[in-house]
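sorry for the late reply, my laptop died twice this morning and i had to redo everyting from scratch. anyway the thing you sent over, i finally got around to it. pasting the sequence first so we're on the same page, its 272 residues, then the predicted structure underneath. double check i copied it right bc i was rushing
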Amino acid sequence: MSGEQIDLRQKVRWVWRETLGVHRRAPETRLASSLSSVEIFVALYYGGILRFDPADPRAESRDRCIISKGHGSICMYPILADLGFFPMEELQHVCEAGSFLGGIPDPVIPGYETVNGSLGHGLGVACGIALGLKRKGSDRSVFVVAGDGELHEGANWEAIMFASQHRLDNLHLIVDDNGISMLGRTSEIVSHDPLEARLAAFGWDCTKVDGHDVLAVQAALRQQKAQAAGKPKALIARTLKGHGVPSMENAPLSHVMSLKPEVVDSLLEQDR
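ok and here's the structure:
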Protein backbone atom coordinates (compact mmCIF):
# COMPACT_ATOMS: atom_id res chain seq x y z
CA MET A 1 0.00 0.00 0.00
CA SER A 2 1.59 3.30 -1.05
CA GLY A 3 1.14 6.28 1.27
CA GLU A 4 2.55 8.71 -1.32
CA GLN A 5 -0.57 8.38 -3.48
CA ILE A 6 -3.00 9.09 -0.67
CA ASP A 7 -3.84 12.34 1.13
CA LEU A 8 -3.60 10.99 4.67
CA ARG A 9 -5.18 14.05 6.28
CA GLN A 10 -8.17 13.79 3.98
CA LYS A 11 -8.42 10.08 4.76
CA VAL A 12 -8.40 10.87 8.49
CA ARG A 13 -11.37 13.18 8.03
CA TRP A 14 -13.24 10.53 6.03
CA VAL A 15 -12.60 7.83 8.65
CA TRP A 16 -13.69 10.19 11.45
CA ARG A 17 -16.99 10.87 9.67
CA GLU A 18 -17.57 7.20 8.90
CA THR A 19 -16.88 6.23 12.51
CA LEU A 20 -19.48 8.73 13.70
CA GLY A 21 -21.90 7.23 11.19
CA VAL A 22 -21.30 3.74 12.55
CA HIS A 23 -21.92 5.01 16.09
CA ARG A 24 -25.14 6.69 15.01
CA ARG A 25 -26.45 3.35 13.74
CA ALA A 26 -24.95 1.35 16.62
CA PRO A 27 -24.76 3.57 19.73
CA GLU A 28 -23.46 0.68 21.83
CA THR A 29 -20.06 1.07 20.13
CA ARG A 30 -17.31 2.84 22.09
CA LEU A 31 -16.97 6.09 20.18
CA ALA A 32 -14.53 8.14 22.28
CA SER A 33 -11.92 5.37 22.37
CA SER A 34 -12.24 4.88 18.62
CA LEU A 35 -11.83 8.55 17.75
CA SER A 36 -8.52 8.88 19.62
CA SER A 37 -6.91 6.22 17.45
CA VAL A 38 -8.05 7.28 13.95
CA GLU A 39 -4.69 8.77 12.88
CA ILE A 40 -2.80 5.75 14.19
CA PHE A 41 -4.76 3.32 12.04
CA VAL A 42 -4.77 5.62 9.01
CA ALA A 43 -0.97 5.88 9.19
CA LEU A 44 -0.62 2.10 9.54
CA TYR A 45 -3.01 1.07 6.78
CA TYR A 46 -2.75 3.92 4.26
CA GLY A 47 0.72 5.25 5.04
CA GLY A 48 2.84 2.48 3.58
CA ILE A 49 3.71 0.98 6.98
CA LEU A 50 1.88 -2.35 7.03
CA ARG A 51 2.22 -5.04 4.39
CA PHE A 52 -1.15 -6.73 3.84
CA ASP A 53 -3.35 -8.30 1.18
CA PRO A 54 -7.12 -7.71 1.50
CA ALA A 55 -7.74 -10.65 -0.85
CA ASP A 56 -5.79 -12.95 1.49
CA PRO A 57 -5.90 -11.51 5.03
CA ARG A 58 -3.95 -14.47 6.45
CA ALA A 59 -1.18 -14.45 3.85
CA GLU A 60 2.15 -15.50 5.37
CA SER A 61 3.74 -12.44 3.72
CA ARG A 62 1.71 -9.99 5.80
CA ASP A 63 2.87 -7.87 8.71
CA ARG A 64 0.82 -8.65 11.80
CA CYS A 65 -1.29 -5.94 13.47
CA ILE A 66 -2.60 -6.91 16.91
CA ILE A 67 -5.33 -4.51 17.98
CA SER A 68 -5.27 -4.90 21.73
CA LYS A 69 -7.73 -2.06 22.41
CA GLY A 70 -10.41 -3.82 20.37
CA HIS A 71 -13.35 -1.84 21.72
CA GLY A 72 -11.50 1.33 20.67
CA SER A 73 -10.99 0.31 17.07
CA ILE A 74 -14.44 0.78 15.53
CA CYS A 75 -12.71 3.27 13.22
CA MET A 76 -11.06 0.20 11.69
CA TYR A 77 -14.38 -0.94 10.23
CA PRO A 78 -14.53 1.75 7.51
CA ILE A 79 -10.79 1.37 6.89
CA LEU A 80 -11.02 -2.37 6.28
CA ALA A 81 -14.11 -1.96 4.12
CA ASP A 82 -12.48 0.81 2.10
CA LEU A 83 -9.40 -1.36 1.49
CA GLY A 84 -11.50 -4.29 0.30
CA PHE A 85 -11.36 -6.71 3.24
CA PHE A 86 -15.17 -6.84 3.13
CA PRO A 87 -17.97 -4.95 1.29
CA MET A 88 -18.73 -1.36 2.30
CA GLU A 89 -22.41 -2.24 2.72
CA GLU A 90 -21.52 -4.21 5.86
CA LEU A 91 -21.00 -0.89 7.66
CA GLN A 92 -24.77 -0.44 7.61
CA HIS A 93 -25.26 -3.51 9.81
CA VAL A 94 -22.83 -3.08 12.71
CA CYS A 95 -24.16 -4.79 15.87
CA GLU A 96 -27.17 -6.21 14.00
CA ALA A 97 -28.09 -9.87 14.30
CA GLY A 98 -26.19 -11.85 11.70
CA SER A 99 -23.49 -9.22 11.16
CA PHE A 100 -19.84 -10.11 11.82
CA LEU A 101 -19.18 -6.48 12.83
CA GLY A 102 -19.88 -6.31 16.55
CA GLY A 103 -19.44 -3.72 19.26
CA ILE A 104 -16.20 -5.48 20.22
CA PRO A 105 -14.31 -6.90 17.23
CA ASP A 106 -13.05 -10.48 17.02
CA PRO A 107 -11.07 -12.54 14.47
CA VAL A 108 -14.17 -13.44 12.44
CA ILE A 109 -13.69 -9.97 10.88
CA PRO A 110 -11.29 -10.15 7.92
CA GLY A 111 -8.22 -8.11 8.89
CA TYR A 112 -8.37 -8.76 12.64
CA GLU A 113 -5.74 -11.14 13.97
CA THR A 114 -6.79 -11.95 17.53
CA VAL A 115 -9.55 -11.95 20.13
CA ASN A 116 -9.93 -8.36 21.33
CA GLY A 117 -12.19 -8.61 24.36
CA SER A 118 -10.47 -8.59 27.75
CA LEU A 119 -7.78 -5.92 27.72
CA GLY A 120 -4.10 -6.30 28.50
CA HIS A 121 -3.27 -9.41 26.46
CA GLY A 122 -2.42 -8.00 23.03
CA LEU A 123 1.22 -7.22 23.76
CA GLY A 124 1.93 -10.70 25.17
CA VAL A 125 0.37 -12.32 22.11
CA ALA A 126 2.38 -9.99 19.86
CA CYS A 127 5.60 -10.99 21.65
CA GLY A 128 4.92 -14.65 20.91
CA ILE A 129 4.21 -13.92 17.24
CA ALA A 130 7.30 -11.71 16.91
CA LEU A 131 9.52 -14.37 18.47
CA GLY A 132 8.03 -17.05 16.21
CA LEU A 133 8.62 -14.96 13.10
CA LYS A 134 12.23 -14.32 14.11
CA ARG A 135 12.91 -18.00 14.67
CA LYS A 136 11.47 -18.78 11.24
CA GLY A 137 13.80 -16.22 9.68
CA SER A 138 10.93 -13.99 8.55
CA ASP A 139 11.45 -10.26 7.99
CA ARG A 140 7.79 -9.48 8.76
CA SER A 141 6.98 -7.01 11.53
CA VAL A 142 4.42 -7.15 14.34
CA PHE A 143 2.52 -4.06 15.45
CA VAL A 144 0.32 -3.91 18.54
CA VAL A 145 -2.01 -0.99 19.24
CA ALA A 146 -2.76 -0.66 22.95
CA GLY A 147 -4.56 1.88 25.09
CA ASP A 148 -2.73 3.54 27.97
CA GLY A 149 -5.37 2.31 30.41
CA GLU A 150 -4.62 -1.34 29.70
CA LEU A 151 -0.99 -0.75 30.68
CA HIS A 152 -2.31 -0.96 34.24
CA GLU A 153 -2.41 -4.73 33.66
CA GLY A 154 0.72 -6.46 34.95
CA ALA A 155 0.83 -8.88 32.00
CA ASN A 156 1.90 -5.98 29.79
CA TRP A 157 5.01 -5.35 31.87
CA GLU A 158 5.91 -9.03 31.75
CA ALA A 159 5.67 -8.77 27.96
CA ILE A 160 7.74 -5.58 27.96
CA MET A 161 10.53 -7.39 29.82
CA PHE A 162 10.23 -10.48 27.60
CA ALA A 163 10.48 -8.43 24.38
CA SER A 164 13.61 -6.68 25.55
CA GLN A 165 15.34 -9.86 26.74
CA HIS A 166 14.68 -11.58 23.41
CA ARG A 167 15.71 -8.51 21.38
CA LEU A 168 12.46 -8.41 19.43
CA ASP A 169 13.30 -5.54 17.09
CA ASN A 170 10.50 -6.70 14.77
CA LEU A 171 7.97 -5.71 17.47
CA HIS A 172 6.27 -2.31 17.57
CA LEU A 173 4.09 -1.16 20.46
CA ILE A 174 1.88 1.83 19.65
CA VAL A 175 0.30 3.35 22.76
CA ASP A 176 -2.86 5.39 22.24
CA ASP A 177 -1.97 7.66 25.15
CA ASN A 178 -5.26 9.51 25.63
CA GLY A 179 -5.00 9.73 29.42
CA ILE A 180 -8.45 8.31 30.19
CA SER A 181 -9.63 4.78 30.97
CA MET A 182 -13.11 3.47 31.70
CA LEU A 183 -13.23 4.78 35.27
CA GLY A 184 -11.42 8.09 34.87
CA ARG A 185 -8.03 9.62 34.23
CA THR A 186 -5.16 7.14 34.15
CA SER A 187 -2.96 9.56 36.11
CA GLU A 188 -5.39 9.32 39.04
CA ILE A 189 -5.64 5.50 38.92
CA VAL A 190 -2.09 4.29 38.24
CA SER A 191 0.14 6.89 36.66
CA HIS A 192 2.45 5.80 33.83
CA ASP A 193 4.41 9.03 33.71
CA PRO A 194 7.05 9.29 32.48
CA LEU A 195 6.05 6.39 30.17
CA GLU A 196 8.79 7.02 27.63
CA ALA A 197 11.50 6.87 30.31
CA ARG A 198 9.98 3.76 31.88
CA LEU A 199 9.93 1.85 28.59
CA ALA A 200 13.46 3.02 27.80
CA ALA A 201 14.59 1.71 31.19
CA PHE A 202 13.25 -1.71 30.18
CA GLY A 203 15.38 -1.64 27.04
CA TRP A 204 12.91 -0.32 24.47
CA ASP A 205 13.57 2.23 21.73
CA CYS A 206 10.93 4.93 22.36
CA THR A 207 9.52 7.82 20.37
CA LYS A 208 6.83 10.27 21.44
CA VAL A 209 4.57 11.96 18.89
CA ASP A 210 1.40 14.02 18.52
CA GLY A 211 -1.07 11.22 17.84
CA HIS A 212 -3.39 13.49 15.87
CA ASP A 213 -0.70 14.55 13.40
CA VAL A 214 -1.05 11.67 10.96
CA LEU A 215 2.07 12.64 9.00
CA ALA A 216 4.15 12.70 12.18
CA VAL A 217 2.79 9.28 13.17
CA GLN A 218 3.58 7.92 9.69
CA ALA A 219 7.12 9.35 9.75
CA ALA A 220 7.86 7.98 13.21
CA LEU A 221 6.61 4.50 12.31
CA ARG A 222 8.64 4.48 9.10
CA GLN A 223 11.79 5.47 10.94
CA GLN A 224 11.29 2.86 13.65
CA LYS A 225 10.48 0.09 11.17
CA ALA A 226 13.72 0.78 9.29
CA GLN A 227 15.75 0.27 12.47
CA ALA A 228 17.09 -3.15 13.46
CA ALA A 229 19.06 -2.35 16.57
CA GLY A 230 18.11 -5.37 18.64
CA LYS A 231 15.50 -3.45 20.63
CA PRO A 232 11.69 -3.58 20.57
CA LYS A 233 10.15 -0.26 19.59
CA ALA A 234 7.44 1.84 21.22
CA LEU A 235 5.59 4.80 19.78
CA ILE A 236 3.75 6.84 22.39
CA ALA A 237 1.03 8.73 20.54
CA ARG A 238 -0.42 11.52 22.68
CA THR A 239 -4.10 11.79 21.82
CA LEU A 240 -7.45 13.15 22.98
CA LYS A 241 -10.18 10.72 23.86
CA GLY A 242 -13.25 11.62 21.80
CA HIS A 243 -11.15 13.71 19.43
CA GLY A 244 -13.29 16.10 17.38
CA VAL A 245 -16.37 15.81 19.61
CA PRO A 246 -16.35 18.76 22.08
CA SER A 247 -18.64 17.09 24.61
CA MET A 248 -16.36 14.04 24.75
CA GLU A 249 -12.88 15.50 24.48
CA ASN A 250 -11.04 14.90 27.75
CA ALA A 251 -14.27 14.18 29.65
CA PRO A 252 -13.30 11.78 32.48
CA LEU A 253 -16.15 9.35 31.68
CA SER A 254 -16.08 9.74 27.89
CA HIS A 255 -15.26 6.04 27.58
CA VAL A 256 -18.86 5.06 28.31
CA MET A 257 -20.61 8.00 26.66
CA SER A 258 -22.91 7.64 23.65
CA LEU A 259 -24.12 10.42 21.38
CA LYS A 260 -27.74 11.01 20.44
CA PRO A 261 -28.48 10.77 16.70
CA GLU A 262 -29.21 14.48 16.44
CA VAL A 263 -25.82 15.31 18.00
CA VAL A 264 -24.05 13.11 15.45
CA ASP A 265 -26.03 14.75 12.64
CA SER A 266 -25.02 18.20 13.89
CA LEU A 267 -21.33 17.24 14.08
CA LEU A 268 -21.37 15.82 10.56
CA GLU A 269 -23.14 18.88 9.23
CA GLN A 270 -20.60 21.20 10.88
CA ASP A 271 -17.77 19.19 9.30
CA ARG A 272 -19.00 19.63 5.72
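The first strand starts at residue 64 and ends at 67.
thats about all i looked at so far, will dig more tmrw
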